[in-house]
Amino acid sequence: MDLLPWRDAWQHALYGAGGFYRGDGGPARHFITSTHEPLGATFAEGVLALADREGATHVVDVGAGRGELVTALHRLRPGLRLTAVDVVARPPGLPADVAWLVSPGGADLPDALRDLHDVLVVAHEWLDVVPCTVAEVGRDGALRTVLVDPATGTESLSDPLAGPDLAWCAQHWCLEGPAAGTRVEVGLTRDRAWAGLLSRVRSGTALAVDYGHTRATRPATGTLVGYRDGTTVPPVPDGTCDLTAHVAVDSLEQDERTTQREALLGLGLTASTPPLGLARTDPPAYLTGLARASAVTALTARRGLGDFHWVLRRIPDPRTRPGA
């Protein structure tokens, strides 16, 4: 069998010809995120509130799936400039004034995504599917690259980790005394992908929303997992399932990090239910209010979507900097 480093097999499985993210139906066919209905419209409210707070006049959605978030944003604020980025061609039915850019996939971004001004860039569950090196401590105590058979998921340990990946682990992980079998998903490619996205922004704010961990909470067994048809499955890089691993959120360049729960509540979203009297005077409005309250509850739930990390990096307008 032909074994590849996990990072290479992962890249091809998701973004190669016939890769998972190029399949019919997109991610929403296999799993629901905060950007998908029935939560998407309420999540979009939070994004708009953040855009307003940050003074953004343009919202860019990186890893846009089939345009669910930008469609919800357009519905709420038709005049807002919107751009979506994903690996597939423009989806049918996307509002005509929403721009669509085709990305190569993974950490790579389209050349046309650059010189962004007064922008809010949203990378929602993008970094967790940027492939990274997977490493494991061998019986000899050395941290070694994990190889995988793309057809079966069978793994083997290879050479000791070296170079920038090892340097990342020295800074952001524990290299002293981990037991054999301890694994780490090396966050260097995610850090570089995030830095590459930030380099496209001339002024504005970038937001990464993802599940993740910090140095103190990195799982000893790793987090790599597959998803298919709404169910977790073994991570086999054969193109038939999503492959995702939690993000080392503390290693990303950032100005602010909080939870989705704290962020959305701080932006004014509340789970308060509509007054019961509205059920008699305006039943449709009452049901809409109940649905929105339910969505806020789900988006801010502990041990659920509310625990997602919001990582923000602000790029000030060079024209407003002292001495400019």
Q: Features of this protein?
A:
alpha/beta, Rossmann fold, 7-stranded mixed beta sheet, 5-stranded antiparallel beta sheet, methyltransferase activity
What would your notes on this structure say?
With 324 residues, the chain is α/β, with parallel strands linked by helices. The protein has a domain at 20-130 and 187-217 and 239-272 and 284-318: Rossmann fold (3-Layer(aba) Sandwich). The chain contains 8 helices and 17 strands. The strands form 4 sheets. Strands 4-3-2-5-10-17-16 form a 7-stranded mixed β-sheet, with helices on both faces. Strand 2, helix 3 (68-76) and strand 3 (81-86) form a beta-alpha-beta unit. It is globular. The protein starts with a strand and ends in a 9-residue tail after the last strand. This is SAM-dependent MidA family methyltransferase. Keywords: Methyltransferase, Transferase. It comes from Phycicoccus duodecadis. InterPro entries: NDUFAF7, NDUFAF7_sf, SAM-dependent_MTases_sf.
Major sheet details: 7 strands, mixed
CATH architecture of one domain: 3-Layer(aba) Sandwich
Strand order of the largest sheet: 4-3-2-5-10-17-16
Amount of beta strand? 15-25%
CA gyration radius, whole angstroms: 21 Å
SSE succession: EHHEHEEEEEEHEHEEEEEEEHHHE
- Total beta-strand segments: 17
